Amino acid sequence: MPERLPLLPEDWDRALCVAAHPDDIEYGAASAVARWTAMGKTVTYLLATRGEAGIDAIPPEQAAPMREQEERNGAARVGVDVVEFLDYTDGVVELTLALRRDIARVIRRHRPEIMVTGAFDVRGAGGRFSNQADHRAVGLAALDAARDAGNRWIFPELLDEGLQPWGGVRFVAVVGSDRPSHGVDVTGEPLARGITSLEAHAEYTSGLGGAAFDVAPFLTWFANSSGPAIGVEAAVLFDLYRLIPDGPMPWMEATS
């Protein structure tokens, strides 16, 4: 049997989830969010776009407000009250300094201790298909912005806005990675609430046409497939990037 992955640390109070599109967080991570909000933690969502290019049959100007509302509805089902949008253009998001600055601005305002974002590998989860360009740009920008937010000399214009540096992001948890390092137990109620969160995106999922699917069996299968990695029935797996050392570093131990 392969060695079990450790549990993702939960000794924190505030989280920020950063994603490219409405529904990205709901494909698994929302179940972990449901667990955390039930524990009394504060979770905030930040979306780079409004997902306006996601439905072929609906023009972007009509799809944007619809998808925004579906995201707010889905977030509410897992206990998230604050959902913010950066208004980048869906489908053509680039990894730029402006994107890093805009995410760093939100980090400084909300001061999270953990951030959650999507995988930024070229290959998607499972390695069977390519990862979408917006996902790659936003995921890597979020990882970089977690450090940027703590350095007053990076994006000094944020100081002019009254936003002091925040270096308290301990780690960035990346969902959908081919190389997960930690897991969160979402057995039972968290998974059930995560399913309802994705179900709130009914207009979007129905607009997928032949690619549409039944939400509950899909998310249940995915969570149950991940559960054995941490020895539970259902789990969400993350690749954890630490920004603040957890305990003494190896060279410190070697010289002590």
TrEMBL record:
<dbReference type="Pfam" id="PF02585">
    <property type="entry name" value="PIG-L"/>
</dbReference>
<dbReference type="InterPro" id="IPR003737">
    <property type="entry name" value="GlcNAc_PI_deacetylase-related"/>
</dbReference>
<protein>
    <submittedName>
        <fullName>PIG-L family deacetylase</fullName>
    </submittedName>
</protein>
<keyword id="KW-0862">Zinc</keyword>
<dbReference type="InterPro" id="IPR024078">
    <property type="entry name" value="LmbE-like_dom_sf"/>
</dbReference>
